[in-house]
Amino acid sequence: MCSSADGPEDMRLAVRGSLLVGSILTLFCQVSSQPPALLEWLVDGESLNATGQETLELGRVEERHSRLYSCRAFNNMTLRWTSITKHLVISSGSSMMLHSPTQSI
User: Fold this and answer.
1) Which of 82, 93, 85, 77 is nearest to 4 (CA)?
2) Which residues contact 45 (CB under 8 A, 6 or more apart)?
3) Residue span of the signal peptide, if any (predicted)?
């Protein structure tokens, strides 16, 4: 049985938790890819060396955690990559999130 290589595409970046100071945040990266894409997390464009993990645990957040969070996916068969970025704003008052749907193909 032979399957063809495809992707990465249909990328999603989800956030679990409140964007309030002291909350525990987890980011989830999902992407369609055959074979499965290699994932990498970045903060403000800098790699976290958290390769291969679909989740990024931020723990108890502070206002200093307000940054651009990106997930980058690479398919080593198609030699294609894509990324998605969200701008998280951590607040000591009301919960808010700015979403920057930046994707590169």
Assistant:
1) 77
2) 68, 70
3) 1-33
- Token pair 């409140």 in the structure block, residue: 18
Summarised one tens digit per residue, pLDDT across range 62-105 is 999 999 999 999 999 999 999 999 999 999 875 444 444 444 44
Q: Which position has the token pair 């979403």?
A: 99
Q: How many structural domains compose the chain?
A: 1
Looking at the domain assignment, is residue 57 inside a domain?
yes
Q: Is residue 104 part of a domain?
A: no
User: What whole-number percentage of the chain has pLDDT above 70?
Assistant: 85
- 66 is in which domain, residue-wise? 6-98
C-alpha distance from residue 92 to each of 18, 26, 32, 43, 105 (Å): 11, 18, 36, 21, 36
Question: What CATH number does residue 63 fall under?
Answer: 2.60.40.10
State the first-to-last Cα distance of the chain, in angstroms, to the nearest integer.
Answer: 29
Q: Is 105 in a helix, a strand, or coil?
A: coil
Residue 1 covered by a domain: no
User: How far is C-alpha 84 from the geometric centre of its chain's CA atoms?
Assistant: 6
